[in-house]
Every structure is written in structure tokens, then in C-alpha cells.
Design brief:
Helix content: 40-55%
Structural class: mainly alpha
Largest sheet: 5 strands, parallel
Order of helices and strands: EHEHHEHEHEHHEEHHHHHHHHHHHHHHH
CATH superfamily of the largest domain: DNA Cyclobutane Dipyrimidine Photolyase, subunit A, domain 3
CATH class of the largest domain: Mainly Alpha
CATH architecture of the largest domain: Orthogonal Bundle
Number of domains: 3
Bound molecules: flavin-adenine dinucleotide, ligand DLZ, iron/sulfur cluster
Radius of gyration: 24 Å
Strand order of the largest sheet: 3-2-1-4-5
Number of helices: 22
CATH topology of the largest domain: DNA Cyclobutane Dipyrimidine Photolyase, subunit A, domain 3
Length: 508
């Protein structure tokens, strides 16, 4: 009897587990564009368009390879609006009682599928280097979960950048060489863009009509929507961006959203590129002398280290992870995150490019939007929803640990040894934002003081009980304690006034 094979919008890999275990001759692939997936957060229109366009092209590819595909378009009058209901509709149409799926990347959907009254086999998503069991084995019994040690295991296991059992170049990590601020006279490569072809243009019209009011600009749309395009984007990055990736990984420049970043997270996360294959290509370029070791190592670490590590955390911690709020933060996310006016140039830059591109690079996410939310005490659940909605690469397995764990310390430091906070000084060092800002990064107190400077001390002061015992924070508390007592009072008062103004909806 026919069996249904569910393929989701971020499972667009021909060798995905469910397809590998299916029989082309008799099974029916089920793919569905559904309102619940588009609406569980208010996704950026570019993200919705990318996923729907890539799904349609992938279904076409499967058909060309001989699969039977039952594909539901979003505006199909028969569309039931959710993945479980679409599976059931196809089951009743075909008489199928059995289905096979690859485990989704969000607990929400895993739990929804578990309630479907079909004999549904859920296979592990093995497009990753570390299985859930591998990660749990590694994590078991460790007092602290630190990415660095996990990463070494991944290097040993894959043999990437290894010389025998030693790391190439004698060091596991070249991060110290990766912290150059960018200068605006640098030659910056432009990412490869793709003109919308017919299926993409059709989806863009649909998304404009249905989701045009969501935060984010749909046009111009130049993302890759199939594997050959994603391959071309990767090849372009390796040639033009990778050699300087390491040096300028943490840099930020106004009006230059991409710098030397790869922009491949979205393609990896929806299955158009394979992570190990990407890393092998980068390693080959290093071996051929086209790319320096600090660039190759820095890049490979993000993929076989951070990407695998955060996924391990998400699935190990279970569905409750997204509700954590260890610091008890409860302020509402200010309207400036949705594009309302702000005098803070760093935030204006990060948010406006997010609106235009559904993209911001790591340091903008961590040290600008994330840092500000943490210092200002924003409810982490609202911060999490924002990141999940606005970035094209956002799926909960990767977004939640980055946002709630790394950026907001909402899990109490499960894998971050201290909160990622900084005053305006760090942003000034790594960017060209502060010169054009209405606030002064050099002022520590007063009306023109950079809000990051005020809020930095406010954060440390209000969380003293929890944080001062942390050896990595001791120096910060010593500096605070040495400050003139009147200055400390003035800083805290100015920070409080700033937060009150922001919460009243005034432009800050
Ligand atoms: P590059 O800078 O070129 O890096 C290369 C690749 O390494 C990326 O494509 C990505 O696959 C991987 N990578 C780098 N850092 C991380 C990381 N911390 N975790 C996982 N993979 C990483 N990444 C997502 O893919 N989806 C998210 O929803 C997401 N949310 C984030 C939220 C916050 C608050 C923070 C601080 C980081 C988040 N990241 C997320 C990680 C990182 O910011 C993005 O992967 C990166 O900016 C994507 O751009 P890129 O492809 O140009 O990356
Ligand atoms: C994000 C997304 C969107 C917007 N739309 C769909 C869809 O219509 N159909 C689908 O199968 N998947 C979609 N997705 C991706 C899912 O939300 C994703 O598979 C889950 O969040 C698990 O990672
Ligand atoms: Fe951001 Fe402060 Fe610099 Fe302004 S002065 S851009 S608020 S860090």
C-alpha cells in the first residue's frame, strides 16, 4: 500500500532521510505550503518567498527524477492550512495509513506530527555531523558545555585541517587573528544575486499579496532558490570573500551589510548545500594556497563547531528551552526593532539592513541587537520571536540557542561562560557607526551618553548578586566599584530615565 513521504520546507535535500528510506515506485511524496508555517511568527517576506520558491523547484526536481509528488500550493482552495492536516488529507485521498518523515527542526512541529493518527515513522535528520546520541555522549558528565572542546572532537572526527592527530598550524583556533576592524576603503566583494525566474516571480506575487505587510522588504529579491544557484553562490564566496573572512569576521561598516561573510547559512539550513561538502571545499582551497589558514579555520569552526554545537544543545534541552528567562527580564521589545526611528546608528543600521535583506551578520546579531536587548532587560521570549521572524536563516534549532543561550543568557549560562555584553566602546572599535551617531560613545553619563555605556553599568549593577562571583566578570565589578560614588548614582539614574523613555514609546 502507498506510503506518504513528508518533505518540509527546510528539508530540500535529495538524500534526506525520509526520501532515502522511501520507494520511488510506490510511495507518494507530500509537500505543502501552509498558513500555519507562514504565521507562527511573522516571518520576513523574503524568508517566506525563499522557502516557497525553493520548495516548488525541489518538487519539480523530484518529479523529474521519477517521484510522485502531491504538492499543495498556498492558495489551493483545498489547502487545510497545516502540515499535519495536509498529511491526513493526502492519507484519506490515497488510503495510505503509513507515513515517513525526517524529524523537523522545531519541537513545535515534532509535537504536532506526533499527534497525527497515522503510523508515522520519524527518522533522524542526518544532514549533520553529530547525531543527537553523539552530542549527548559528548555532553554527558561534563560540568560545562564548551564549544571549543566539542569542536576539537569534530575536527578529529572529520580530519578537517588536521595533520595526523594535530591541528594544522599547531593551533585549534586562530580567533586572535580574526578581530580586525574594517576600513571603508577596503575592496568588498558583492554577493552573487539571482534574477527571479518564472517560479520565483510567481511566488513573489503570492507573497506580496499575502504577506506584504509583514516587517521586511520583498524586493529586490536575489536569493538562490535551488541547489545549482546555491553552489554558484558558495563558489563565488570562496573565490572573492573567503580569503579575508577571518581578518574581518567581527567588523561592521555602515551601508555594507555583507563584508566578507558567506551568506550561506540559509542555503545550509534549508538543505541546498551540504555542510561537510562546504568545509571540504574550503579546506581544499587552503591546501592549494588560495586561502590563509586563519580564514579557513575560522570559517570551518563556525560550521562544524558552532552550528553542530547549538543544534546539540537545542535537542538536548527539550521543548522548554525557549521559555527560559534566567535573568527575569520582562521589558517589551521596543518598536525600534520593527523599524521605528532611533538615534542609535548601530541599531538603525542593523535593523534597516535586516528589513532590506533578512540578513545581518553574526556580530551585528550578537553585539548590537542582542547586546542592546540584554542590557535593556528585554523579555527573552520576545527577543527570540524577533530573531526567528526576521532572518531568512532562522529555524528554531539554530536560532533559539544562539538567541536565548549565547545572546540573552536566558539559560543561565548553559554554554556561555558569561553574558555577551559590551559598552559602546566595543562597537566603536569594530565599526564606523559611532562617528555619525547623535550619542557620544566617549560620554559615560549625561544626555548625550551612548546608551550602551549607561545600560552596561545598569545591567551589571542589577545582576550583581548573580554575576559578581563569576571570575570572568570580576574585573568589571572592580572597575565599577572604583568609580566615584556620585558618578555611579548619575549613571544608574540616566540609564533608568533612558529605559523609561524607551518603554513609554519615545524615540531614543
Ligand atoms: P558566516 O559568517 O559566513 O559564517 C559561516 C557559516 O557558519 C554560517 O553560514 C553558519 O552556517 C555558520 N555559523 C556561524 N556562526 C554560527 C552560530 N553561532 N550558530 C550556528 N551556525 C553558525 N544562524 C543561523 O543559521 N540561523 C539563525 O537563526 C541564527 N540566529 C542567530 C541569532 C543570534 C542572536 C546570534 C548571535 C546568531 C545567530 N545565528 C544564526 C548565527 C550567525 O549569526 C549566522 O549563522 C550567520 O550570521 C549567518 O551568516 P553567514 O552565512 O554570512 O555566516
Ligand atoms: C518556515 C516555513 C514556511 C514559512 N513555510 C513552510 C511551508 O509552507 N511548508 C513547509 O513545509 N515548511 C515551511 N517552513 C519551514 C518549516 O517551518 C520548518 O520545517 C519547521 O519550522 C521546522 O524547522
Ligand atoms: Fe551605537 Fe553608542 Fe556608537 Fe551610537 S555611540 S552608534 S549608540 S555604540
Amino acid at each position: 500500500m502507498v506510503r506518504l513521504v513528508l518533505v518540509l520546507g527546510d528539508q530540500l535535500t535529495p538524500s534526506i532521510a525520509a526520501l532515502r528510506h522511501a520507494d520511488k515506485a510506490q510511495d507518494l511524496v507530500v509537500m505543502a505550503e501552509v498558513a500555519t508555517e507562514a504565521r507562527y511568527v511573522l516571518h520576513h517576506p523574503k524568508k517566506i518567498a525563499l522557502i516557497l520558491a525553493a520548495m516548488r523547484k525541489f518538487a519539480g526536481r523530484l518529479r523529474a527524477e521519477g517521484w510522485q509528488v502531491a504538492y499543495t500550493k498556498l492558495n489551493d482552495p483545498q489547502n487545510t492550512g497545516s502540515i499535519p492536516a495536509e498529511l491526513l488529507r493526502r492519507a484519506s485521498q490515497t488510503g495510505a495509513r503509513r507515513a515517513v518523515a525526517t524529524r523537523p527542526g522545531e519541537w513545535r512541529l515534532i509535537e504536532a506530527l506526533e499527534t497525527v493518527p497515522l503510523d508515522l515513522e520519524m527518522l533522524e535528520d542526518d544532514r549533520f555531523l553529530a547525531s543527537h546520541a553523539d552530542f549527548d555522549r559528548w555532553a554527558e558528565g561534563r560540568k560545562q558545555l564548551r564549544m571549543d572542546y566539542f569542536y576539537r572532537e569534530m575536527r578529529r572526527r572529520t580530519g578537517l585541517l588536521m595533520e595526523g592527530d594535530r591541528p594544522a598550524g599547531g593551533k585549534w583556533n586562530f580567533d586572535r587573528e580574526n578581530r580586525k576592524p574594517a576600513r571603508d576603503d577596503l575592496f568588498l566583494p558583492a554577493p552573487l544575486r539571482f534574477d527571479p525566474d518564472e517560479p520565483v516571480a510567481e511566488v513573489l506575487d503570492l507573497v506580496e499579496t499575502r504577506f506584504g505587510k509583514n516587517f521586511g522588504r520583498l524586493h529586490p529579491f536575489g536569493l538562490a532558490t535551488d541547489a545549482p544557484q546555491a553552489e554558484a553562490a558558495l563558489a563565488h564566496f570562496i573565490e572573492t570573500g573567503l580569503p579575508a573572512f577571518g581578518d574581518y569576521q567581527d567588523a561592521m561598516l555602515a551601508g555594507r551589510p555583507f563584508l566578507y561573510h558567506s551568506l550561506i547559512s540559509t542555503y545550509l539550513n534549508i538543505g541546498l548545500l551540504d555542510p561537510l561538502d562546504v568545509c571540504r571545499r574550503v579546506e581544499a582551497d587552503w591546501k592549494a594556497g588560495r586561502v590563509p589558514l586563519n580564514a579557513a579555520e575560522g570559517f570551518i569552526r563556525q560550521i562544524i563547531g558552532w552550528r553542530e554545537f547549538v543544534r546539540g544543545i537545542y535537542f538536548r534541552e527539550g521543548p522548554g528551552y525557549t521559555r527560559r528567562n534566567a535573568l527575569g527580564h520582562d521589558r517589551d521589545l521596543p518598536a525600534l526593532y520593527w523599524g521605528a526611528e532611533t538615534g542609535m546608528v548601530c541599531l538603525r543600521e542593523a535593523v534597516s539592513q535586516t528589513r532590506d535583506e533578512a540578513y545581518a551578520h553574526h556580530i551585528q546579531r550578537l553585539m548590537v541587537t542582542g547586546n542592546f536587548a540584554l542590557l535593556a532587560g528585554i523579555d527573552p521570549a520576545q527577543v527570540h520571536e524577533w530573531y526567528l521572524a526576521v532572518y531568512a536563516d532562522a529555524f528554531e534549532w539554530v536560532e533559539a540557542p544562539n538567541t536565548l543561550g549565547m545572546s540573552q543568557f536566558a539559560d543561565g549560562g548553559l554554554f556561555a561562560s558569561k553574558p555577551y555584553i559590551s559598552s559602546g566602546n566595543y562597537i566603536d572599535r569594530m565599526s564606523d557607526y559611532c562617528g555619525a551617531c547623535r550619542y557620544s560613545v566617549k560620554s559615560k553619563v549625561g544626555d548625550d551618553a551612548c546608551p550602551f555605556n549607561l545600560l552596561y553599568w545598569h545591567f551589571l549593577s542589577r545582576h550583581r548578586d548573580r554575576l559578581e562571583g563569576n571570575p570572568r566578570m570580576a574585573q568589571m565589578y572592580r572597575t565599577w566599584d572604583r568609580m566615584d560614588a556620585r558618578k555611579r548614582v548619575a549613571i544608574l539614574e540616566d540609564a533608568r530615565l533612558f529605559l523609561d523613555r524607551m518603554s513609554r514609546g519615545e524615540t531614543v
